[in-house]
Amino acid sequence: MKNNFKYNAFTDDSFFDPFDELKRINLFDDSFFENSFHDNLKIFFKRMFPNCHSFEAKKEAEKAILVNGKNDLSTYLERDFQSISAEDFYLVIDQLLDFNLGLEIDFGSGKQFLIDSGQQVLSAVKIDSTNLADFLFNALILRSANGLSLIDNLVSDGFLIESFARMFPNCHSFEAKKEAEKAILVNGKNDLSTYLERDFQSISAEDFYLVIDQLLDFNLGLEIDFGAGKGAKIEIVADGGDAQAALDGVEGTLKSESLV
């Protein structure tokens, strides 16, 4: 797939796999290929409300999104389907982008509204497992009513915090996740738990990759130091391992200078 939607927070490659981009921001993992179309769509939409911290809050947020004249998003996602219309999908995205249904857009014109506003949308009329990743990536880079992209707004609403919390799946209580976060050092001043308590609109790529290094079990102070999380000259100490091959495995993910 050609990247016609250049967005520096993801990649500058001319050709790319949209699933790889979704995986890099921890929106999906490899279970994407095992899940049904319906399950993947539900996962995507349920992660669009990172500032809703309970099941009930997410449910209420979904009910405020109208898909068509019959269903809100919560009811719509209860159906078991193998495909949906691109029109239904873009109508939901319009509302996630804070364009108000009935004021700026009407039922049946969600996709055309984006086209008329100068945004690039995909031409397919039906979404299924073969093109779902393409549509999800396209949605994340569409611009909202405030001029920011959907992924920008998600980060502002706490997507990074929720995303990092999912990095500790074996911690089954709030206290256990908190202790795991405290074991991750971001810089010389803060652990991950303290770092995420700040109200920020962006972080340095260096801080981000330093956290990822430790999630990958490279111990801070042994293999890496503060300020060297992103550097390509990190020495990976692995018994019998191929350090260059390990670095090659993450090549191409170190291009963005900041996460916004």
Which features would summarize this protein structure in a list?
260 residues, mainly alpha, two-stranded antiparallel sheet, 4 strands, disordered N terminus, disordered C terminus
Task: Provide a short characterization of the protein structure.
The chain has 260 residues and is mainly alpha-helical.
> What gap, in angstroms, lies between the N and C termini?
25 Å
Report the average pLDDT across residues. Answer: 75
Strands in their spatial order, largest beta sheet: 1-2
List unreliable stretches of 5+ residues: 1-13, 232-260
Approximate strand percentage: under 5%
Structural Rg = 20 Å
Overview of the structural elements:
With 260 residues, the protein is mainly alpha-helical. It contains 13 helices and 4 strands. It has helices at 18-24, 37-46, 55-63, 73-76, 86-96, 110-116, 132-140, 150-156, 159-165, 174-182, 192-195, 205-215, 243-249, and strands at 84-85, 126-127, 203-204, 258-259. The strands form 2 sheets. The protein has a two-stranded antiparallel sheet with strand order 1-2. A two-stranded antiparallel sheet has the order 3-4. α1 packs across α7 (132-140) and α5 (86-96) packs across α6. The longest helix has 11 residues, at 86-96. The radius of gyration is 20 Å and the shape is globular.
